[in-house]
Every structure is written in structure tokens, then in C-alpha cells.
Amino acid sequence: ILGVLKAGKIYVPLDPSYPKERLLKIMGNAGIKLMVCNAATLSLGEELTEILGKEYNHGGTGIISLEREIESRDNIGENLRRWDGSSENRPAYILYTSGSTGEPKGVRQTCGNVYFYAKSYIDWLGIKPEDRMTYLTAFSHDGAVVDIFSGILSGAVLCPLNIKGEWGMEEIAMWMFDMKITIYH
């Protein structure tokens, strides 16, 4: 996310658990030119970009594999700077909802909106760098934005947990205890 924003681009989160047809509609509608995938989603990304090019007459979508990029870089920590929500009117992301028709509908948010909501959340909860926050929301949902950027802007640690599995309340409570969670959202 930070790399996309630093490059002055807009990120569009795609949930790999969504049906391929929905992902293709989102990609086509958003005009996605580059996908960033990890090892677990790379084959799906390759399949989607191939279909998008053939069946949707899309101009072409490149793919970046995070693992390959990290392995090929000696100085990956260079040129880092803090993202502070600057360029407040510049779009930051587009999230797709199902809308009232069931068709994907993109909702765009600006850097200023992201910064405002994250900063408000930080202030409301008094989030500090020593905090450890849960990150339970799917990447493609609005709630994830507040968690991710509140963690980034406050310096708190984000502790992700995929709760789609066999997690019951006892397991989640034990995980929170083990992770020393101070903020649950």
C-alpha cells in the first residue's frame, strides 16, 4: 500500500476469495495496470491478467511478485519516507462494494480522508507506538483502512489474524493474550 501511495498511484484491494468474474469486473472497471501479488496469490494474478487481456480487451496488466522483488533488491530500505496524507485531494484507494444491484461499484477515497479518519482514530483511542492492535478485517473492506493507517501513522504494531478459519472466541482470546494486544478493533 505504501509503495503504491508513494508512487502517486491509487490502490485497489482485491480479495482472492472473491469469484474470478467479480475480480475481473473490478480490474476492468478500475483500469488496473499493475498487480502486486505474494507467492500465495501469484498464480491467481497471472490467470486474471491473462483473462483480462483476452476477454475484456484490457490494455495489459503487469504483475509484481513481492518475494521476487525483495530477493532482487540489495537496498530495499532505501528511499523510505513517512506517508503523512499529503496531497489530500489525490485519490488513495478505490474499494468495491456489491452495491444495490449486486454489481461491483467503486468508491474512491482521497489521501486527506484516509489521513483524517486514521488520525481521528489515533486521537480517540490514544494510540501510541507501544500499542499492539488487532488487524482482523479483510484488506478489501473499509475497516481495514482505519486499522492499517492508524498503525502506520501512530507507529503501533499491527497483529493480523485471519478469523475466517476455525477460530472460536476462546482461541481468539488466547491469541490476543499471547500477542499482548492493547487495542482490539
List keywords for this structure.
alpha/beta, two-stranded parallel sheet, 7 helices, 6 strands, globular
Strand content of the residues, in percent?
15-25%
The strand count comes to 6
Low-confidence stretches: none
* C-alpha Rg (nearest Å): 18 Å
Give the topology string: H per helix, E per strand.
HHEHEHEEHEHEH
Choose one word for the global shape: globular
Query: What is the helix fraction of residues, given as a range?
Result: 40-55%
Alpha plus pi helix count: 7
Cα end-to-end separation: 20 Å
Could you tell me the mean pLDDT? 85
The secondary-structure class comes to alpha/beta
Spatial arrangement of strands, main beta sheet = 1-2
Largest sheet geometry? 2 strands, parallel
Give the SSE layout:
Blueprint: H1 2-6, H2 20-30, E1 34-37, H3 42-55, E2 62-65, H4 66-72, E3 91-97, E4 105-110, H5 111-125, E5 132-135, H6 142-154, E6 157-160, H7 169-179
Parallel strand pairs: 1-2, 5-6
Antiparallel strand pairs: 3-4
Helix pairs in contact: 2-3, 5-6
Quickly describe the structure.
With 185 residues, the chain is an alpha/beta fold.
